[in-house]
Amino acid sequence: LKLNLLMAHEGALPAVAVDQKEKQKPEIVLVPEPARVLEGETARFRCRVTGYPLPKVNWYLNGQLIRKSKRFRLRYDGIYYLDIVDYAAVYTCEAKNDYGVATTSASLSSIIVLNEHNEVPGDIQCHDFS
């Protein structure tokens, strides 16, 4: 941002406005909580960050950047949201700016609903540990 200051006896004098806001590394102030949902339902993680300049926030699954898709929805309204359709795993929120990086992770668990006969679906193995 450049300002031109006019002094009566000297004419135009260029001046540079100094950004007074203190530089700050990212900090995660609202961490996503571990979640459990019924199989097939949508879960939501929330993450709020501070820092200056405003950090760039990304979500990761197994180290891979999450992009918007049928399974994942990303939204921001002052809080960063990740909506997940039926994918149990550990998710990581990363906030990064020129002064640092902050990360936090949360797990999503699916609760499998047994059918009316209390049968376990064929692709799931059960073990009795008693």
Automatic annotation (TrEMBL):
Organism encoding this protein: Otus sunia (Oriental scops-owl)
Residue span(s) of domain Ig-like = 26-109
What is the name attached to this protein's record?
Ig-like domain-containing protein
Query: Lineage of the source organism?
Result: Eukaryota, Metazoa, Chordata, Craniata, Vertebrata
Which Pfam family is an annotated match for this chain, by its short name?
Answer: I-set
Please name the InterPro entries in this protein's record: Ig-like_dom, Ig-like_dom_sf, Ig-like_fold, Ig_I-set, Ig_sub
In terms of PANTHER family, this protein maps to: IMMUNOGLOBULIN
UniProt xrefs under Gene3D superfamilies: Immunoglobulins
